[in-house]
Design a protein that fits this description.
- The complex is a heterodimer of chains A (168) and B (569).
- Chain A has 6 helices and 7 strands.
- Chain A has a domain at 61-166: Alpha-Beta Plaits (2-Layer Sandwich).
- In chain A, a hairpin with a 2-residue loop joins strand 1 and strand 2 (69-70).
- Chain A is α+β, with helices and mostly antiparallel strands.
- Chain B is α+β, with helices and mostly antiparallel strands.
- Among the domains of chain B are: 2-91, Roll (Ubiquitin-like (UB roll)), CATH 3.10.20; 279-555, Rossmann fold, CATH 3.40.50.740.
- Chain B contains 16 helices and 23 strands.
- Chain B has helices spanning 19-25, 77-92, 108-116, 152-160, 192-196, 259-264, 299-311, 328-341, 370-378, 387-396, 413-419, 434-438, 485-489, 507-517, 527-537, 546-549, and strands spanning 2-6, 9-13, 49-52, 59-60, 71-73, 134-135, 140-142, 166-169, 176-179, 202-204, 217-222, 231-237, 240-246, 279-281, 294-296, 318-322, 345-348, 401-405, 424-429, 441-444, 453-456, 461-465, 554-555.
- In chain B, the strands form 6 sheets. A 7-stranded mixed sheet of chain B has the order 15-14-20-19-18-16-17, sandwiched between helices. A 5-stranded mixed sheet of chain B has the order 2-1-5-3-4, sandwiched between helices. A 3-stranded antiparallel sheet of chain B has the order 6-7-10.
- In chain B, strand 6 (134-135) and strand 7 (140-142) form a beta hairpin.
- In chain B, helix 8 (328-341) runs parallel beside helix 14 (507-517) and helix 8 packs across helix 15.
- The longest helix of chain B has 16 residues, at 77-92.
- Chain B is elongated, with a radius of gyration of 28 Å.
- The N and C termini of chain B lie far apart (56 Å).
- Classes of the chains: A alpha+beta (168), B alpha+beta (569).
- Bound molecules: iron/sulfur cluster (4 copies).
């Protein structure tokens, strides 16, 4: 605001007579509260009762595992597109037909912002957003997920892969 | 001379040139795969089609000479259509390999597909399958499916390397690149085919899958592999050199470099045996306690030790060894320090491999700065006495202290025996070697990949090297290093910022510290200060500055060969 402008004066709405009496308003509020007791509950007994997200949900990114190996060919596109610089991929040679695989694949979950760009850019449908949303760490190092934590069998990701195919 | 018009631009050009040469000279880009300025014209890729008025059909710009009055259009609808068609043809059998292809990111086919192709194929048959992962030679891997049959590699081997080893076999869409029976692609320049290959058909076996090109920074520097000093780019990720590629300099190496330089001049920078901090031999520390009997100390302690030891000897009891591996600046200051101490026994070693040379690039002298040492070092020293004399005097006991920069005289067992007799032996070294084992003080010096400086090649061309790898005292951003995207946006605690760093200093800086510890008042804050001093005091460097050297370097003013060559050792 420039200095020669006066701040706008905001007029509070004047209270009505009944509102000024105070007690009736308190009672009105209490009535609302009491009425909630008899309505159905929204509270979920987490962690005993867990929420299963729909297929469109973007949980933590994982690597799709098929026949015991990752689909990933270490092209590095996810690492390039990741706006948070969360992904680190180191490629290497494999005897498999795909020639190239990631010896190291790490996602820094403290950096990841769950945007799903990695999933979108991947030419191999090798990295997808899972339905997992529970992430707790006690140190920064724990927040870096290696292949051990990232690999997830394709069967477990059926819903998401199906969803992606439909929305291509 | 011919007057021609390209895209409305009127040009007066030499009529021996082709359209593509003229266009490129005048900043008009005409796409090309098979054409290369140094190779014969093949005209097989057809992507350089342009329209010339009064010609019935489109012509290929690489094989059409300009004539007076020619009117060329490089972007008319006809040309655009034709290019699209050529791209469609090239991509018919091209595999969808980009994700696993090392060329991706610097691939002409990829680039042109974006620029000139519609990105759809009308071809829905099975693609032709050809061999993949073919080891063409010790350094080059071939993927036949990706080859677009441009024949650049074949022509390079025939015309530049003069080693016809590559050939096409079969016909039509079954054409395959291969080596002649019983041959390997193994000539000393084989890896230039990798740079030449416009696609990812030829890739480096050394660099294979190590990094994507966009993850690395690239720094313009010079190869220290031999006295040629090929201009090159150094590619670094996570403070680690991953590959070297040639950089165009028509005066020195043109577009090429040799495989030896490309593969062997960077591995020691990040090697296990790097000396990570200054080392001192201390009383009571036995050789089996630490590997070499040397202990790591801080810079101040190491330099104080060198200064106090040097002071305790007579000037005739000290000898110095310059280095053709070190820069002009390093050698200049070394000689200056020796002069300051009154030391007259200065020499340097030549590293010649007789016969290991050719008339393309490779020189028998395996040091990058032989000429430079003589130019800034020994001629300006009072008396360049030879190395053999120094060794004899050490044996006799008249020389008691030796100061060596960036060389490994101890590699010769006979010399090592002599060096063991020294009372005080100080060495600047970047990696452990036979000499550091004998030293009393080892000052950890930067490699050529970690410092600024200049080398003088055998032609007398002074060329700049630039740092690409940081030492403990440097910072990529603050010290103006080339930076990759990761370098720019990473934080200090990101894993990719944790690459190995040595507590090393460039030799010129160490020498400044030593001289000042001895009471001198040298004020060289940057290596450029040193170079400016050389330019001011040395006749052949007159008028030079880092700015003027630029990317191509400058020739020394003297043409006369310096005769005071030290004794060959
Ligand atoms: S979801 Fe987004 S932020 Fe997370 S790893 Fe993928 S691209 Fe990076
Ligand atoms: S984009 Fe896909 S294939 Fe490429 S590195 Fe990432 S996960 Fe692997
Ligand atoms: S040669 Fe180029 S277009 Fe072909 S797979 Fe490699 S990067 Fe892709
Ligand atoms: S291997 Fe490369 S350079 Fe050689 S013909 Fe094929 S595409 Fe051209």
């Amino acid at each position: 605001m420039s200095s020669n402008q006066h701040p706008k004066i905001i007029h509070k709405k004047d209270l009505t007579f009944w509102q000024k009496l105070y007690i009736p308003e308190i009672l009105r509020g209490l009535r609302l509260t009491l009425a909630q007791i008899f309505r159905p509950k929204f509270t979920r007994q987490y962690p005993e009762e867990r929420w299963k997200p729909p297929a469109s949900f973007r949980g933590r990114p994982v690597l799709v595992e098929e026949n015991g190996v990752e689909r990933c060919v270490a092209c590095g596109l996810c690492a390039r597109v990741c706006p948070a610089l969360a992904i680190e991929v180191q490629g290497s040679e494999t005897e498999l037909w795909k020639e190239r695989y990631p010896v190291k694949f790490e996602i820094n979950m403290l950096r990841c912002i769950f945007c799903g760009f990695c999933e979108e850019v991947c030419p191999e449908e090798a990295i997808v957003m899972s339905d997992e949303y529970e992430l707790t760490f006690t140190s920064q190092e724990e927040g870096i997920f290696g292949k051990d934590k990232l690999l997830m069998p394709a069967v477990k990701l059926k819903d998401r892969l199906e969803f992606l195919r439909q929305h291509r | 001379m011919a007057k021609i018009t390209i895209d409305g631009k009127q040009l007066e050009v030499d009529n021996k040139l082709t359209i593509i040469q003229v266009a490129l000279e005048h900043g008009i880009a005409i796409p090309h795969f098979c054409w290369h300025p140094r190779l014969s014209v093949a005209g097989n890729c057809r992507i350089c089609l342009v329209e010339v008025e009064k010609f019935p059909k489109l012509v290929i710009a690489c094989a059409t000479q300009v004539t007076d009055g020619m009117v060329v259009k490089t972007n008319s609808p006809k040309v655009v259509n034709a290019r699209e068609a050529v791209m469609e043809f090239l991509l018919i059998n091209h595999p969808l390999d980009c994700p696993i292809c090392d060329e991706a990111g610097e691939c002409k086919l990829q680039d042109y597909a974006y620029k000139f192709s519609e990105g759809v194929s009308r071809f829905d048959f099975e693609k032709v399958r050809k061999p993949k992962r073919v080891e063409l030679g010790p350094n080059v891997m071939l993927d036949v499916e990706r080859c677009i049959m441009c024949s650049r590699c074949v022509r390079f081997c025939d015309e530049i390397a003069k080693k016809p080893q590559l050939v096409f076999i079969q016909r039509a869409d079954h054409v395959e690149l291969t080596t002649f029976p019983g041959e390997n692609l193994d000539h000393p320049y084989s890896m230039n085919t990798i740079d030449l290959c416009p696609v990812g058909a030829l890739t480096s076996r050394d660099f294979r899958f190590k990094a994507r090109v966009w993850e690395m920074s690239s720094t313009d520097t010079v190869c220290p592999g031999c006295a040629r000093g090929c201009n090159m780019k150094m590619w670094v990720r996570n403070n680690e050199v991953l590959r070297l590629t040639p950089r165009y300099n028509p005066e020195v190496n043109d577009y090429w470099m040799c495989d030896y330089g490309r593969l062997n001049t960077f591995k020691y920078v990040n090697a296990e045996n790097r000396i990570k901090a200054p080392l001192i031999r201390k009383e009571g520390v036995l050789a089996n306690q630490t590997d070499s009997g040397l202990v790591e100390v801080g810079w101040d302690e190491a330099i104080a030790k060198v200064a106090s030891e040097l002071k305790s000897f007579d000037e005739d009891e000290i000898a110095g060894l310059c280095s053709a591996f070190a820069t002009n600046e390093d050698n200049y200051l070394f000689v200056k320090l020796m002069n300051m101490l009154g030391v007259k026994n200065i020499a340097f070693l030549q590293h010649l491999i007789e016969g290991d040379e050719d008339d393309i690039l490779i020189r028998a002298d395996k040091t990058p700065n032989n000429r430079g040492v003589r130019e800034v070092g020994l001629t300006s020293s009072i008396n360049g006495s030879g190395w053999e004399i120094i060794l004899r005097r050490i044996d006799e006991g008249t020389i008691k202290a030796l100061y060596v920069i960036d060389d490994d005289p101890g590699a010769d067992p006979r010399v090592a025996e002599t060096l063991a007799r020294l009372d005080f032996f100080v060495v600047h070294a970047s990696n452990e070697n036979d000499t550091t084992k004998l030293a009393d003080v080892v000052l950890s010096s930067s490699t050529y990949a970690e410092k600024h400086g200049t080398f003088t090649n055998f032609q007398g061309r002074v060329q700049r090297i630039r740092p690409a790898v940081t030492t403990a005292e440097q910072d990529r951003a603050l010290d103006g290093f080339a930076m990759s995207r990761l370098d720019k946006f990473g934080a200090h605690n990101d894993r990719w910022m944790q690459g190995p760093k040595c507590d090393a200093r460039p030799t010129w800086r160490i020498l400044t510290c030593v001289a000042n510890a001895l009471g001198a008042k040298w004020k060289h804050n940057t290596v450029e200060d040193v170079f400016n001093e050389i330019a001011a005091t040395t006749e052949s460097f007159k008028g030079m500055s880092y700015m003027k050297l630029g990317l191509r370097g400058m020739l020394l003013k003297t043409k006369v060969e310096v005769v005071a060559a030290p004794i060959h050792a």
